[in-house]
Structure formats: C-alpha cells, structure tokens
Amino acid sequence: EGEDGGSEHGRERGDGGRGQDLVQTSRRVLYVSGEEMEDQVYDRAARMGLGDCSSLYVLSDYRMEVVCEQVYKLRPAALVIDSIQTMSLAELNNPMGSPIQLVECCKCLKQLARDGMAVFTIGHMTKNNQIAGPKAMIHMVDVVLRLEEDMSQAFRMLRADKNRNGSTAEMGVFSMEAGGMRAVEDLSAQFLASRSTSSVSSALTVTMDSARPLAMEVQALVTSQPPQSQAPPIRQPSGVNRERLGPIIVSVLHKFVLKLHDQNIVVSITGGLQMREPAADLAIAVAIVSGYYSIAVPRDMVVIGEIDLGGGLRPVKSLDTRLAEVAKLGIKSAVIPKPHYPEELTKLQRDPRLQGLDLLPCTELLEAMRIVLGKRVGQRKGAGTRQTNKGTGGRGKHTKSKSRTTFEVVDIADDETDEAELAGQSDNEEEEEDEQGEPWEKEMDPA
C-alpha cells in the first residue's frame, strides 16, 4: 500500500527542481510484473530463501497509468518493470507489444526517471539475440545490459551493449544456484579444476571476453579417414569459429607442418564457452598436432598466438593481462608470439605479476610446435624421398585404377632422370609436328 497524500500523476512541477515530486524517504523498490501474479512472485521469493523483504513492493498490473499512480504514491528509490512488452497505455488503440505501445511506455518511464528514481526495464529477446521492439527504446535509456545463459554450464554472462556512464568492455559472471545468481570471482580456476587428466590432444590458452581474461582448454580429436572413402574429411568445431578452423588453421598446418588432407578433425572448447578471437589459433593447432602424433602437451604450459597465412605468429592484444591470469594459476611456461620490439619482451619479463613464468617467444608456427611437442614434429619420414603426383607438373610416376589414383614414392635422383627423358621426348615430338605440318594446312582448298 502506498502512503497517503501522494501527488497525482502528471502534476506540473513549477519549482524547476529535479526530483521534487519523488522525495526519496526510504530505499523502497517497486517491482511491477505484467506476467505473474503477486502470489507467484512471493512463492518464487520464498523458494529462493530471500526471507523478509520489507522494502520490496510488488504490483501485478499491465496498465501504465496504474503503474505511474502507484509510483507517485509509494515514491520508491527504484522501479523494476517486468517486462516492457507487457505494458500498455489505455489511450492508445494499438495492441500490447506493438512498436507504438513500446515507445510510448518507454517515454512514461523516462519521465519517471527524470523525477529522481532509478528505472530498470526488462525486455524480451528474439531468436537472433536482439531486443524485441524498435531501436528507439535503446536510444531512450542510458544502459543496455544483456544476460546470456549457457545451457551446458551453470554460468550467466552479463554484458553491456550500451553504457553512457562507463565502459562496455566489462563483463560479469554469475552462477545459477538454488538461492539465485551468485557472482563468480575466479572463473578460470573453476574451468581448470575440471581439466582432463590426459594432456594428449589438449592445450591451454587464454582468451579475452570483453576486458576479462578467461583460461580455457582446447581439445582436438584427429582420426584417419578410411582409404576407400570418397567423402571429404570432417571439420567439426564446437565453440570455435568455423571460418578460422578449416580455411586458415587446418590449411596452414597442412602446408607448413603436416598433411591433414585425409584426417578427420573435431575441435571442442571445454566448459561450453565460445572463443571469438584469433588469439586461440595456436592452441587449436597445438591440440590438433598433439592428437596426430599422440604427444602430450605439458600441463603447466600455456600457448597464445594468432596464425597468419604465411605460417607465422602474430602478436595479440592484452598479452600481459592474459599471462598474469595464468601465472596466478600455477602455470610455469608460456609460448607466445615474439613482440615486434625487444622493449616489449623486456617489459613482460620484468612484470612482477609474471614472476616464475618462463616466456618462450616464437616467430613461426613450426618453431612453436617443436618447442611444445618436440623436434619430431614436421620432419619427413624418409630422407631423400618425397611424394609426387601428376597434379604438380607431372613429376614422378603414378598409376591409375578404376577406383582411385595411387602414387609411388620416387627417389629424387631417378625423378631428375625421368624429367630429362620427358624433356627429350617432348623435343622429338615438336620436330615431328613441324615436319608433318598442321592438319588444317593439308585440307585447305588452294582456291
């Protein structure tokens, strides 16, 4: 119930003072639900164990006129609308949730906010993860917060899409529990606590989610495709950008490290999170090569770096923040891209947050692979031999069958002899063609 003597809705303010109509005498909060009854809200609060909420008032109504009337009677410090899509004005003939209703209801709430209270408006989201309604609603508010949920984990990510009073690079992480959402202080430690015991096909990296570093584990499964299979190899990412896995990472590995044309590759990020930046390229490549050779990656090592198309490693942003995140988790060594300037590497080595962390800078992808997995990576299986096919200029011997083309391994010296023989045959064929003349010259009519 509101206090007696409340001011009427919409009365004029002639004194020019800000917030004179809503003098905040207490820290009351008015929660307006257009979707649930008061009993439903109370049962949910009792189930969560919130106890006696003497300063929380609940109103179940969808009429904006009634909401404004109760606000001027109660004069709360904060108003929560759940949700804006269920609010409507009686003076408008448009249905509830229409663009005109949403805009006009937002205008009423904006006026209440100017009277000296904090207004929190909850909105529905579409399947495309966009706010349901016109963009004009976003321009009316000061802050737009988006709460993301992950069905595979009990974590919720709170991100800022708009913030007039601060940065949008911050992110809040919460865990969903029986008593509601609780803030998660060290998310990286929770991810690494459930890390797999086997280090084969697994690599540790650090990604930046907004301005928050997160240590993640990358796992890869590499299997050989059956020889009789005519289907293309599998490239299945989970939590990894598909556009970077196949065209960039696997292609660069195939050219500079090992042949993956007949290998099925499945890459996954543990924890169900998403890697949205290229700084995880090196970790994905290390996990793939580790699974191919069945070589374990040191558990106290982290790999960070972006792979370019030339087989090199490119520096990443906020490298010091990433390394400080894993240094406090007990990681002993880090494979990183070599900075452009020596002063940057010296600055990292002198950083007090990185004490006890051995930095291993690399410039090439193959160099980083051999540091992590050993010198066996990238070496040819036979000295003085190589695989040849007809598609590379006709060098080497090949045989054809009805089902597929098979290739033979030819010694380099024999290959050079074959090239000389082929060159001599081609010269003889050209001389014979010159003596015989072109066919169209013989058939041409003299007239």
Give me a quick take on this structure.
It contains 12 helices and 21 strands. With 447 residues, it is α/β, with parallel strands linked by helices.
Describe this structure as you would to a colleague.
This protein has 447 residues and is an alpha/beta fold. The chain is built from twelve helices and 21 strands. It is elongated.
Largest sheet entry: 4 strands, parallel
Strand content: 15-25%
3D shape: elongated
- Mean pLDDT equals 78
H/I helix tally: 12
Helix content: 25-40%
Structural class: alpha/beta
User: Number of DSSP strands?
Assistant: 21
Uncertain residue segments = 1-25, 381-420, 433-444
Major beta sheet, strand line-up: 2-1-3-4
Radius of gyration: 34 Å
Tell me the span between the first and last alpha carbons.
Answer: 114 Å
